[in-house]
Design a protein that fits this description.
The structure holds 3 protein chains of 3 kinds.
Chain A (H helix, E strand, L loop, with lengths): L3 E10 L2 E11 L4 E5 L6 H8 L9 E8 L2 E2 L7 H7 E4 L10 H11 L5 H14 L3 H4 L12 H13 L5 E5 L7 H14 L4 E5 L3 H7 L2 E6 L2 E7 H6 L4 H7 L5
Parallel strand pairs in A: 3-8, 3-9, 6-7, 7-8
Antiparallel strand pairs in A: 1-2, 1-4, 4-5, 9-10
Chain B lengths: L3 H35 L4 H5 L2 E2 L3 E2 L2 H32 L4 H15 L2 H15 L6 H25 L3 H9 L4 H29 L3 H6 L19 H11 L3 H33 L1
Antiparallel strand pairs in B: 1-2
Helix pairs in contact in B: 1-11, 3-6, 3-8, 4-6, 5-6, 6-8, 7-8, 8-11, 10-11
Chain C lengths: L1 H37 L3 H5 L3 E2 L4 E2 L2 H32 L2 H16 L2 H20 L6 H25 L3 H10 L3 H30 L2 H6 L19 H9 L7 H33 L1
The chains are: A alpha/beta, B mainly alpha, C mainly alpha.
Chain lengths: 249, 278, 285
C-alpha cells in the first residue's frame, strides 16, 4: 500500500477552483517531486497533505489517505497529523530564538520536558540535517545569525525533531545560493532512507537529480505522474514534454 | 506683478515661520515651568505632606499618582492585551468583530470629563466604592483601555506570519502558537506601549478629580478604598484656589515633577524600544 | 486539549467584548443621571438662565460660548497648523523634519493641566495687560485650546498631503508649474478631505477639553452670551467641573450637570462621527 493515497481531490479557494480531481499515490521512503508552472496548484496540493490549507480557509473535497486513514474524515486530530507530516517552507523561517530552542520547540510543544531527552533530540536532529559541524558548539546563539542555507537546514532539523514520517518541502532552495542548494539536495537524498519526501520545485533539473517519482501539474490538473526517469526521458503527454523541454513555463 | 518664483520664496518663508512657532511653543512652556519649578524642588518638598493648604510637600501626591496609575494598568493592561490578541488572532471578519472595533473607537472618543462623570455615578455612588484609589484607578483604566488595545494590536501585528506558519506546521495548537511565538515576540512592543500609556494616564486630571480624592490629602491610602491624592489635582487646586506666591510656587513644583516623570517615562520607553530592536 | 483552546478563545472574546460593555454602561449611567434635566427639553437646552440656587437650568449661553471658543481656537490652529503641515510635507529637508515632528508630537504629551497652569501664569496676565479685563476670557481660551489642537491638525494634515500620489505632483511640475502653484492647485485639493477631517477632529477635542480651558476661561457665576471676545465665559466642560464639587448628590443641580455631560457627549460624538466619514471618503479615493 502506498504511504499516501490521494483520491479525487478537489480544492476551492472561494470561487477559484485550484485543484481538480487529483488522483495520485505517494510511495514510502521515496522522493516525489511536484513540478509545473507558477499557479498550477502544486503548493496548494502540498499543503493539503498536512492540512495547512485549513488555516487559509480552503474548501477541500475528496480523500487524502495516510496509512489507510483519511485525514479529512472529521475524526483526525490536526495536531498529531502535523507531527507525522512535517513541512519545510520556501523562505527559511527560524524563530527569533537560539538554535537549540528552535529545534527543541516542536518536542516541547508536544510535551517533552526532560532536559536530557530534549538535548539528545536536538543533537540528533541537527546531525540528521547535516548542520552539526556548523553549529554544534554554539547552540545557544541566535538562529538569525546563521546564513540562509544554514537557516534552512535548521528549519529541516526543527521539522525532524518531532519525528515525522513524511516531510513536505515547498521549494526549499529557491531562496538559496547554488552551494547551499546542493547541500540540501544531498541531504534530501539521505533523508529518504528514513522519511517519505514530497518536494515542490520550480527547478526541473533539481527534480531530475533527486526524485524517484515526478508529478506534473498544470492549471490545477495532474497531467502526468510516474517514475522520474520515464517522465523526463519518455513522457506520455504532449504537455509534459512541452514543459520539460522548456516550451512554456 | 510678483513673479511666481518670488511668490514661492515668500510662501516658503511664511510656512517655515509657522513650523518655527509650533516648535517654539513646546520649548517656551517646558522651559518656563522648569525655571520656575526647579527652585521649589528640594528634598523636603518631595518627601513632606501638604500642610495647611499652602505649606508642606507633595509626597502623598507623588505616591498617589503612581498608585493610581498602577491600579489603572493592573486592569487596562491585561484586558488590553487579551482584547488585542482576540481581535488579531481569532476574530472572524464579520459584524461582531466590526462592532467591537467600533466600540473601542467609541471609548477613545469620549471626553475625559464624561468618563469622570461615569466613574462618579457608577463607581463612587452606584457601586458604593466612594472617592477612592480603586474608583480613580478603574475610571482611568476605562479611559486608557483603547490605548492599551491599540498598542498591543500593533505589536502583535508586527510578528511575521511565517513564524505562525512554522509553529502550526510543527503541530502546535493555536494557543500554543500565540503564547510561545506571537505574544512572546510582541512583548517588547506591548511593554513600550503600556509604558507610554502610563504617562498619559498620569497627567489625567478630570477623571481623577471626580473619583479619587480632593488632591490635598496629607496621608497615604491604607487600602484601595481610601481616597488618594494626586499630582494633577494638587496642581489644579494650588493654581486656581491658592492666590499667594507660596501656592503658585508649589504648583510649579508639582508641574515640574509631573513633566519630569513624564519625560522619564518617554526616555525609558525609547530606550526599551531600541534595546529590544537589538 | 481542544477544550482548553475553546475556553481560551472565549476568555479572550469576553475581554474584547468588555469595551462594548463599557460603552453601554457609560451611556446608561449618563442618561440615568442626566435624564431629569434632559426631560426639561427646550427649557434646558435653550433656557437662557443658569442659576442653580434659583432652580434655573438653562444652558444655552454655555452652549453658545462652547462653540465660540471651539471654533475660534480651530481657526487659529488651522491658520498655523495647515501651513506648517504644508511646510513639513513639501518643503522641509528630511533632517529638519525629523527634529520638528517629534517636538510637535511631544506637545501632545504635556498634560492639559500643565498647559492650563501655564495659561494662568503667563497668558492671563499678558492678555490682561494688553487688552484689559481680568485676562480670563474667550480669547485666552482660544490661544490655549489652539495650542492643544495644533499637533493633531499638523499630524493629520501632513499625513494627508503626503498620501497625494507622486504622479499628480510630477505631472504638474512637468508642465512648468512652480512648487507652490502645484501645492495650491493639485495637492491641497486632493488632500482636502483629510485636512478637513483633522479640523473637525480638532473641534471635537476643543469642545471636550476640560482642564486647560477651565483655568483660563473665566467661569463667571452667571453665564451669559458674550458680547466681546475678552469677556469671561463658561463652557460645557468647565461648568461640570466647577459645580460638581458642591452639587448635592441626587439634587436637580447634580442631574443638570449630568445633563450637560450628555449634551457634551453627543456633540463630541457627532463631530467624531463626521471625522470618521471624512476619513472613510479619503480612503476610498
Amino acid at each position: 500500500m502506498a504511504k499516501i493515497e490521494i483520491k479525487n481531490l478537489d480544492v476551492h479557494y472561494g470561487d477559484a477552483h485550484c485543484l481538480k480531481g487529483i488522483d495520485i499515490e505517494i510511495q514510502e521512503n521515496k522522493v516525489t517531486a511536484l513540478i509545473g508552472p507558477s499557479g498550477c496548484g502544486k503548493t496548494t496540493f502540498l499543503r493539503t497533505l498536512n492540512r495547512m490549507n485549513d488555516i487559509s480557509g480552503a474548501d477541500v473535497k475528496g480523500e487524502v489517505i495516510l496509512d489507510g486513514a483519511n485525514i479529512y474524515d472529521g475524526l483526525t486530530d490536526v495536531i498529531s497529523l502535523r507531527k507525522r507530516v512535517g513541512m519545510v517552507f520556501q523562505q527559511p523561517n527560524p524563530f527569533p530564538m537560539s538554535i537549540f530552542d528552535n529545534v527543541a520547540y516542536g518536542p516541547k510543544i508536544h510535551g517533552i520536558k526532560d532536559k536530557t531527552e530534549l538535548s539528545s533530540i536536538v543533537e540528533d536532529s541537527i546531525k540528521q540535517a547535516a548542520l552539526w559541524d556548523d553549529v554544534g558548539d554554539r547552540l545557544n546563539e541566535s538562529a538569525l545569525k546563521l546564513s540562509g542555507g544554514q537557516q534552512q537546514r535548521l528549519c529541516i532539523a526543527r521539522t525532524l525533531a518531532v519525528n515525522p514520517e513524511v516531510v513536505l518541502f515547498d521549494e526549499p532552495c529557491s531562496a538559496l545560493d547554488p552551494i547551499s542548494t546542493s547541500k540540501i539536495e544531498a541531504l534530501i537524498r539521505e533523508l529518504k532512507k528514513d522519511y517519505t519526501i514530497i518536494i515542490v520545485t520550480h527547478n526541473m533539473q533539481q527534480a531530475a537529480r533527486i526524485s524517484d517519482f515526478t508529478a506534473f501539474f498544470l492549471m490545477g490538473v495532474l497531467i502526468e505522474f510516474g517514475e522520474t526517469s520515464k517522465i523526463f526521458e519518455k513522457p506520455e503527454c504532449e504537455k509534459t514534454e512541452e514543459y520539460i523541454t522548456g516550451r512554456f513555463g | 506683478m510678483i513673479s511666481a518664483i518670488t511668490t514661492e520664496k515668500i510662501v516658503k518663508c511664511l510656512l517655515s515661520v509657522t513650523a518655527l512657532i509650533s516648535v517654539a511653543i513646546l520649548f517656551i512652556i517646558v522651559i518656563h515651568i522648569f525655571i520656575n519649578g526647579v527652585g521649589v524642588l528640594d528634598l523636603q518638598f518631595l518627601s513632606d505632606s501638604p500642610r495647611r493648604f499652602e505649606e508642606g510637600g507633595i509626597f502623598p501626591q507623588i505616591v498617589g499618582t503612581l498608585l493610581l496609575v498602577a491600579v489603572c494598568m493592573a486592569f487596562a493592561a491585561p484586558i488590553g492585551v487579551a482584547s488585542a490578541t482576540y481581535l488579531v488572532e481569532y476574530a472572524p471578519d464579520g459584524l461582531v468583530t466590526k462592532s467591537i472595533r467600533f466600540f473601542v473607537d467609541c471609548i477613545a472618543g469620549i471626553p475625559s470629563i464624561v468618563i469622570g462623570l461615569f466613574g462618579l455615578a457608577f463607581l463612587v455612588y452606584y457601586l458604593g466604592l466612594g472617592t477612592s484609589l480603586i474608583s480613580g484607578g478603574l475610571a482611568l483604566s476605562f479611559m486608557i483601555l483603547p490605548w492599551t488595545i491599540r498598542v498591543s494590536e500593533e505589536a502583535i501585528k508586527t510578528v511575521p506570519c511565517s513564524y505562525r506558519e512554522a509553529s502550526y506546521a510543527l503541530g502546535a495548537s493555536k494557543w500554543q502558537t500565540i503564547r510561545n511565538v506571537v505574544l512572546k515576540n510582541a512583548t517588547p512592543g506591548i511593554i513600550t506601549g503600556i509604558l507610554l500609556g502610563t504617562g498619559k494616564a498620569m497627567g489625567e486630571t478630570a477623571v481623577v478629580l471626580l473619583t479619587a480624592g480632593s488632591g490635598l490629602e496629607s496621608f497615604l491610602p491604607e487600602s484601595v478604598l481610601d481616597p488618594v491624592g494626586s499630582l494633577p489635582v494638587y496642581l489644579y487646586i494650588m493654581a486656581t484656589q491658592g492666590h499667594t506666591s507660596a501656592a503658585y510656587n508649589r504648583a510649579y513644583g508639582a508641574a515640574l515633577v509631573l513633566i519630569l516623570i513624564f519625560l522619564g517615562i518617554s526616555v525609558l520607553a525609547v530606550f526599551l524600544r531600541d534595546h529590544y530592536r537589538r | 486539549m481542544i477544550n482548553t483552546e475553546k475556553i481560551i478563545e472565549m476568555v479572550l472574546f469576553l475581554c474584547a467584548a468588555s469595551s462594548t460593555l463599557i460603552v453601554f454602561f457609560i451611556v446608561a449611567f449618563m442618561f440615568r443621571e442626566g435624564i431629569f434635566a434632559l426631560a426639561m427639553g427646550k427649557d434646558f437646552i435653550f433656557g437662557m438662565e443658569w442659576n442653580p440656587s434659583q432652580d434655573q437650568f438653562g444652558i444655552f449661553p454655555i452652549i453658545v460660548s462652547t462653540f465660540i471658543v471651539g471654533l475660534g481656537s480651530l481657526l487659529i490652529s488651522a491658520s498655523i497648523g495647515i501651513p506648517c503641515a504644508i511646510y513639513l510635507a513639501e518643503f522641509s529637508p528630511e533632517w529638519l523634519r525629523n527634529i520638528i515632528k517629534p517636538s510637535i508630537e511631544m506637545l501632545v504629551g504635556i498634560p492639559s493641566i500643565v498647559l492650563g497652569f501655564f495659561g494662568i501664569m503667563i497668558l492671563v496676565p499678558l492678555i490682561r495687560d494688553l487688552f484689559g479685563g481680568t485676562g480670563e476670557s474667550i480669547f485666552t481660551g482660544w490661544i490655549i485650546l489652539s495650542i492643544m489642537t495644533l499637533p493633531h491638525v499638523i499630524a493629520i494634515s501632513e499625513d494627508s498631503i503626503r498620501t497625494v500620489p507622486k504622479t499628480f505632483k510630477e505631472s504638474s511640475l512637468a508642465i512648468g508649474a512652480t512648487h507652490w502653484q502645484t501645492i495650491r492647485k493639485v495637492i491641497l485639493p486632493y488632500a482636502h478631505s483629510g485636512i478637513l477631517a483633522s479640523l473637525v477632529l480638532g473641534m471635537g477635542n476643543a469642545v471636550g477639553e476640560t482642564m486647560a480651558v477651565l483655568m483660563v476661561i473665566g467661569n463667571p457665576n452667571i453665564p451669559w452670551i458674550p458680547q466681546s471676545v475678552f469677556e469671561p465665559v463658561r463652557v460645557l466642560t468647565s461648568t461640570i467641573v466647577i459645580e460638581m464639587g458642591y452639587a448635592v448628590w441626587g439634587s436637580m443641580h447634580q442631574h443638570a450637570l449630568f445633563g450637560i455631560g450628555v449634551v457634551l457627549f453627543l456633540v463630541v460624538a457627532l463631530l467624531n462621527g463626521i471625522t470618521m466619514t471624512f476619513v472613510r471618503r479619503r480612503l476610498e479615493i
